[in-house]
């Protein structure tokens, strides 16, 4: 980028900053795929293929007060979320997607020169927000099966360490972190953020530990299990004193009226949504078994709504492009930590069939 005009005033550490690489949106593929945009099979962003609860659609269509700001104190919303997560109201903070809560947490704890410990490969927003705040990410590698290195994490702690991030299930690898490993890390006393964006698919949570440990933060999202990725709503459970700070530093009215309605209606339709989660988990098993039959792919077991696969023959980048041409979108990686691999979101049975047919035709 040219360094003239007002650009020369941009904070130096953001010059050359690598942003977050978001998934391809079908709207951008006009003319690049052999199918109509409506027929694209989207398995690249871990979205819920069933959509949200029909109750959400009905309530949004009927809402008459989008002209009024939402309650900045999130009273009703926090009450509903506290009930769902079985935690006190004063420990809850909701956000415009859990991504923004990650960003607020980093803003709260991390300044220039501070360190954040990350177990890589993992969700890239932890690095993204840390670097924007001028912090340094200390990467501790996972092992060959993507288990975290507890001893490595603990020995990387310095006087500048401000946060340890742990995603469970991890994105993009899909594995969970054993509770005993998480507790060993929490017992360091440093702020530990356990990101449970995919909790409803794994059924494993550290949430009960929030009552015991005053340095534990748990993040959850409505994007995946409740099919609300487009409305942007997530929440965190914090030690109450930290939640109070979060409420002070967050952007005012950070959850829309529409998102608040969507949460209320999702909770009113829990059985329906849990039925969809169950269908996705069943489809995950079927997709895994189908992928295993393809000799040049190595799928890794997953507890989330996606499956990570090493590509053993040929280039993952080319595979992604060939699948894209056939109208099947998957995410691909080729970097030192995620070598020649793809991540496939679990869809409906028909999506699995479209993907497997496309893979077999290659
Ligand atoms: C591990 C992890 N955390 C958080 C998020 C962000 O979710 P949200 O849509 O609530 O911002 C994602 C989204 O893909 C994720 O994979």
Features:
single chain, 362 residues, alpha/beta, Aspartate Aminotransferase, domain 1, Aspartate Aminotransferase, domain 2, seven-stranded mixed sheet, four-stranded antiparallel sheet, 12 helices, globular, binds pyridoxal-5'-phosphate
Describe, in plain words, how this protein is organized in 3D:
The chain has 362 residues and is an alpha/beta fold. It has two domains: 25-51 and 271-361, Aspartate Aminotransferase, domain 1; 54-268, Type I PLP-dependent aspartate aminotransferase-like (Major domain) (Aspartate Aminotransferase, domain 2, 3-Layer(aba) Sandwich). The chain has twelve helices and 13 strands. The strands form three sheets. It has a seven-stranded mixed sheet with strand order 2-8-7-6-5-3-4, sandwiched between helices. A four-stranded antiparallel sheet has the order 9-10-13-12, covered by helices on one side. A hairpin with a 6-residue loop joins strand 9 and strand 10 (306-311). The longest helix has 23 residues, at 270-292. The two termini are 39 Å apart. The structure holds pyridoxal-5'-phosphate. Residues 46, 97-99, 123, 167, 171, 195, 197, 221, 223, 229, 234 line the site of pyridoxal-5'-phosphate (PLP). The site of pyridoxal-5'-phosphate has 13 residues, from helix 3.
């Amino acid at each position: 980028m040219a360094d003239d005009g007002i650009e020369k005033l941009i904070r130096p550490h953001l010059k050359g900053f690598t942003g977050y690489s978001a998934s391809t949106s079908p709207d951008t593929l006009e003319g690049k795929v052999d199918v109509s945009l409506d027929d694209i099979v989207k398995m690249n962003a871990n979205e819920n293929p069933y959509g949200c609860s029909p109750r959400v659609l009905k309530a949004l269509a009927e809402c008459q007060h989008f002209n009024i700001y939402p309650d900045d104190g999130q009273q009703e919303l926090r009450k509903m979320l506290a009930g769902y997560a079985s935690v006190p109201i004063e420990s809850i903070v909701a956000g415009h997607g859990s991504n923004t809560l990650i960003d607020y947490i980093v803003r709260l704890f991390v300044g220039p020169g501070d360190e954040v410990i990350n177990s890589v490969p993992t969700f890239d927003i932890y690095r993204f927000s840390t670097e924007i705040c001028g912090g340094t990410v200390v990467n501790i590698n996972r092992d060959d099966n993507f288990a975290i290195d507890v001893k490595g994490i603990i020995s990387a702690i310095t006087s500048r360490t401000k946060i340890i991030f742990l995603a469970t299930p991890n994105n993009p690898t899909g594995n969970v972190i054993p509770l005993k490993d998480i507790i060993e890390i929490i017992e360091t006393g440093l702020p530990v953020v356990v990101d449970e964006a995919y909790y409803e698919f794994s059924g494993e949570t550290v949430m009960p530990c929030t009552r015991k440990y005053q340095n534990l933060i748990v993040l959850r999202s409505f994007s995946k299990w409740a099919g609300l990725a487009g409305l942007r709503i997530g929440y965190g459970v914090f030690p109450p004193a930290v939640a109070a700070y979060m409420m002070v530093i967050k952007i005012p009215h950070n959850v829309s009226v529409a998102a608040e309605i969507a949460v209320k209606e999702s909770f009113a339709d829990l059985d329906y949504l849990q039925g969809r989660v169950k269908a996705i988990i069943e489809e995950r098993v079927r997709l895994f078994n189908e992928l295993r039959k393809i000799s040049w792919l190595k799928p890794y077991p997953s507890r989330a709504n996606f499956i990570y696969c090493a590509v053993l023959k040929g280039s993952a980048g080319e595979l992604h492009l060939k699948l894209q041409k056939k109208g099947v979108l998957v995410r691909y990686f080729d970097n030192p930590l995620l070598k020649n691999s793809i991540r496939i979101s679990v869809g409906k049975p028909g999506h699995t069939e479209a993907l497997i047919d496309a893979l077999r035709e290659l």
